[in-house]
């Protein structure tokens, strides 16, 4: 038995274990290892090689030998990297995070923000905008970054709270859907999508408790998206969450309307659980648990033991590729659901979280520690490509959520 299969066997034995303390011990060990990986390898590497100072911004990718590339940079990468360094700062990481947050975000503002207040979609590595088109997804990440910078750097709160409100007002003025949520474009472009709403939901929940922000408007915004999710994104029969819709928030009539992504079942499960706890909504919690059940029951490849990209609405596998980020969402949702449940139910979530840790570790297992692979193919081999910066936000969030949930379970 080689080392990797020995590790898998070990994880499987533990996952089946009925002894809660053994599972918790194992999760605690993994959490410590992941935190060391994050603080000693990944953050230093992505700061040294992936951040290029006040005039350079953040790289889209690093080669697997740790060199920056000149790949065009999607808008989302900057606020996501800012989120990572701001959160690391909040957690006491000793690197030069202040500079990366402040200068990295200034670069993002200067390079991507358009005169209409929205952020462009793509620029090259020298800061020339290549695609100005509007994407709700990108604006959601800007708002998430505003909230996390304000948390990490109190001196910017009075600037960022009003900027977040202004962004929301701009979004509503230009893209509000007549019924609920937001359009993809103006004039209308179909399908409408749940995914950018998920990130706006995440951002709204970050803003609603952040000092310096208008808690009332963000709370209302989070509530609107949660209700849209409960009434339209989630299929009332199966309980699965769809991706694409027609103009009335009904499943899109072509094949796209049938897609349900396991990673998004987990990601929404985590967000909805947080919202359900905060608003005391047992109905939402039930739906969140069902999302998790679908992700776990239908979205995991039995051979590779990873969450795959896409199912259809009969829960058959539509895309067997496995990306890194769904594994992190599996881990976050399993851990949070473990925190709020008891007995056998908690045990099952902890066992699932252990399997998710292992799935994540598969992607982090590269020679230069601090980097990752992103795509595991159906045949068990990884796509040979550079490490995408955009996955870092998922990894950071999962490692800190694992740590927080374990602390709550101690
Ligand atoms: O595809 P990148 O940019 O790595 O993002 C990773 C993923 O993040 C998730 O939260 C979702 O929004 C996915 O739709 C997205 O693909």
Automatic annotation (TrEMBL):
Q: Which Gene3D superfamilies match?
A: 1.50.10.10
Family membership, please give it.
Belongs to the N-acylglucosamine 2-epimerase family.
The UniProt record lists the EC number as 5.3.1.8
| Protein's UniProt keywords contain Isomerase | yes
User: A Gene Ontology MF term for this entry?
Assistant: mannose-6-phosphate isomerase activity
Protein's GO biological process = carbohydrate metabolic process
Q: Return the protein name.
A: Mannose-6-phosphate isomerase
Q: Which organism is it from?
A: Rhizobium rhizoryzae
InterPro entries linked: 6-hairpin_glycosidase_sf, 6hp_glycosidase-like_sf, AGE/CE, AGE_dom
Cite the entry's keywords alphabetically. Answer: Isomerase
Top-level taxon of the source organism? Bacteria
EC supergroup of this enzyme = isomerase
């Amino acid at each position: 038995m080689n080392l990797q299969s020995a590790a898998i066997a070990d994880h499987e034995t533990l996952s089946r274990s009925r002894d809660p303390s053994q599972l918790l011990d194992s999760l605690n060990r993994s959490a410590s290892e992941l935190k060391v990986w994050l603080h000693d390898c990944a953050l230093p590497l992505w700061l040294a090689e992936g951040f290029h100072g006040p005039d350079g911004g953040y790289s889209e990718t690093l080669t697997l030998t740790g060199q920056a590339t000149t790949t065009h940079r999607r808008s989302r990468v900057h606020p996501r990297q800012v989120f990572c360094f701001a959160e690391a700062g909040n957690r006491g990481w000793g690197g030069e995070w202040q500079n990366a947050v402040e200068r990295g975000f200034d670069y993002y503002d200067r390079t991507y923000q358009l005169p209409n207040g929205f952020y462009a979609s793509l620029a090259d590595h020298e800061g020339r905008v290549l695609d100005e088109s509007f994407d709700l997804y990108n604006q959601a990440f800007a708002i998430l970054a505003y909230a996390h910078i304000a948390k990490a750097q109190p001196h910017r709160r009075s600037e960022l709270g009003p900027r977040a409100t202004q962004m929301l007002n701009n979004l509503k003025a230009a893209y509000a859907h007549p019924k609920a949520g937001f359009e993809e474009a103006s004039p209308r472009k179909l399908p409408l999508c749940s995914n950018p709403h998920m990130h706006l939901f995440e951002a709204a929940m970050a803003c609603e408790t952040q000092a310096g922000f208008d808690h009332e408007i963000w709370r209302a915004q989070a509530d609107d998206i949660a209700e849209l999710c409960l009434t339209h994104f989630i299929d009332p029969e199966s309980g699965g969450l769809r991706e694409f819709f027609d103009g009335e928030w009904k499943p899109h009539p072509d094949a796209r309307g049938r897609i349900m992504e396991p990673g998004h079942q987990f990601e929404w499960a985590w967000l909805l659980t947080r919202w359900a706890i905060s608003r005391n909504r047992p109905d939402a919690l039930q739906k969140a648990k069902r999302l998790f059940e679908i992700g776990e029951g239908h979205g995991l490849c039995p051979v590779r033991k990873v969450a795959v990209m896409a199912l259809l609405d009969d829960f058959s596998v539509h895309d067997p590729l496995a990306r890194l980020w769904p594994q992190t969402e599996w881990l976050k949702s399993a851990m949070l659901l473990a925190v709020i449940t008891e007995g056998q139910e908690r045990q099952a979530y902890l066992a699932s979280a252990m399997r998710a840790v292992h799935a994540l570790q598969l992607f982090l297992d590269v020679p230069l520690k601090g980097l990752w692979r992103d795509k595991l193919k159906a045949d068990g081999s990884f796509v040979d490509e550079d490490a995408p910066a955009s996955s870092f936000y998922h990894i950071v969030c999962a490692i800190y959520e694992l740590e927080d949930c374990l602390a709550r379970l101690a």
